[in-house]
UniProtKB/TrEMBL annotation:
Upper taxonomic lineage: Bacteria, Pseudomonadati, Pseudomonadota, Gammaproteobacteria, Chromatiales
GO cellular component terms attached to this protein's record: cytoplasm
Cofactor binding, note field: Binds 2 [4Fe-4S] clusters per monomer.
Intracellular or extracellular location(s): Cytoplasm
Organism: Thiorhodovibrio frisius
GO molecular-function terms, A-Z: 4 iron, 4 sulfur cluster binding; cobalamin binding; epoxyqueuosine reductase activity; metal ion binding
Name the UniProt record assigns to this protein: Epoxyqueuosine reductase
Occurrences of domain 4Fe-4S ferredoxin-type (ranges): 181-210
Subunit note: Monomer.
Binding residues for [4Fe-4S] cluster 2: C200, C216, C243, C246
Length: 371
């Protein structure tokens, strides 16, 4: 079988395994490597120290897996519901918003298993070769590689965009020592659009194609281990795990498809759960309800920290205050600090509402400006 024929078969086998698209990239990443160094030098990675580890292995595949000549890149759609339903869940007065990628089963294991099946299928046809499946499990520049493989272009929000599928998909890679023909990258089609930049609640997309992760809600609710900076808390709204705002406004996502993978469908009603209900989970229930989910990695303390902030941002109510007061003497300093902040904010917002009721016609002061 010629390399060209094998590459065509690999793409067909990938689709048969549930990937929506498969492409092949080379290992040349000097441009993205330079961008990564600049990004790290600015400190925009925050506490994500792992982004600075491993030397140049992240941007030089053959250093991570010696002998690597090509990277087979694959994408799999995960959007669990129609976009209108996700938009309605954002900024809901009492419901929690969880980034849609985390509503179902943890994607890491599923994609890695499918990539392994693809490698074994290739091996059955071409004979033994060196390979390694990767899904966020090692230092890999997955978006630049996917762009080089023709799966899409990196948008101004720094996510990969496919012209026929938007950006609601996962990426996985298969490092191989096969000398396969590489695919052509796609040019950017963002044009003058800046919808993702304008909608970002915290202004994390500081320039087109440049993200300060320290401001990103996904970083603040997932990666950050300590206290969420107080000035940013009101901007989180009801987002307790990640944020999908930049994807929801991207015009290319009108072409996105609802996933066909049952494992990516919402579990435990997390697509419409109330903040009060989730805040009542003790650690045992948290671990039980998040078994097999990407959410479990943040742990129970960060879970309560995030929900406390969301309750502080929720419409003032006796029920919200009671839930917060029940956690006000929590043994964790981190949780107590965020609960006390939320209680003070509930009180302040209630006072603002009372003032608005006394002065009809005046604008409400409870809406927070966006950064």
């Amino acid at each position: 079988m010629t390399p060209t024929t094998l590459a065509a078969h690999i793409k067909t086998w990938g689709r048969e395994l549930g990937f929506q698209q498969v492409g092949i990239a080379g290992c040349e990443l000097s441009g993205p490597e330079s961008y990564l160094h600049d990004w790290l030098a600015r400190g925009w990675h925050g506490e994500m120290d792992y982004m600075a580890r491993h030397g140049s292995k992240r941007s030089r595949p053959a250093e991570l897996l010696p002998g690597t000549k090509r990277v087979i890149c694959a994408r799999m759609d995960y959007m669990p519901e129609a976009l209108e339903d996700t938009r309605a869940a954002c900024d809901h007065p009492i419901e929690a918003f969880i980034s849609r990628y985390a509503l179902g089963r943890d994607y890491h294991k599923l994609l890695r298993a499918r990539l392994k099946q693809l490698a074994l299928r290739i091996e059955a046809e071409s004979g033994p070769f060196q390979w390694r499946p990767l899904v966020d499990s090692a230092p890999v520049m997955e978006k630049p590689l996917a762009q080089a493989a023709g799966l899409g272009w990196i948008g101004k929000h720094t996510n990969l965009i496919n012209p026929g599928a938007g950006s609601w998909f996962f990426l996985g890679e298969l490092y191989v020592d096969l000398l396969l023909p590489i695919d052509e990258p796609l040019p950017s089609h963002c044009g003058r659009c800046r919808a993702c930049m304008d909608i970002c609640p915290t202004g994390a997309i500081v320039k087109p194609y440049e993200l300060d992760a320290r401001l990103c809600i996904s970083y603040l609710t997932i990666e950050l281990a300590g206290a969420i900076p107080a000035p940013l808390r009101p901007l989180l709204g009801n987002r307790i795990y990640g944020c999908d705002d930049c994807q929801l406004v991207c015009p290319w996502n009108r072409f996105a498809h609802v996933t066909k993978e049952a494992d990516f469908c919402p579990r435990h009603g997390l697509d419409g759960a109330s903040l009060i209900a989730l805040f009542s989970w003790d650690e045992a229930e948290f671990l039980k309800r998040t078994e097999g989910s990407a959410i479990r990695r943040i742990g129970h303390q960060r879970w309560l920290r995030n929900i406390a902030v969301a309750l502080g941002n929720a419409a003032p109510s006796p029920v919200a205050r009671q839930a917060l007061e029940a956690r006000s003497d929590h043994p964790s300093d981190l949780i107590r600090e965020h609960v006390h902040w939320a209680l003070a904010r509930q009180c302040q917002r209630r006072e603002n509402d009372d003032l608005s009721e006394k002065a009809p016609g005046t604008p409400s002061s409870q809406q927070e400006p966006r950064a």
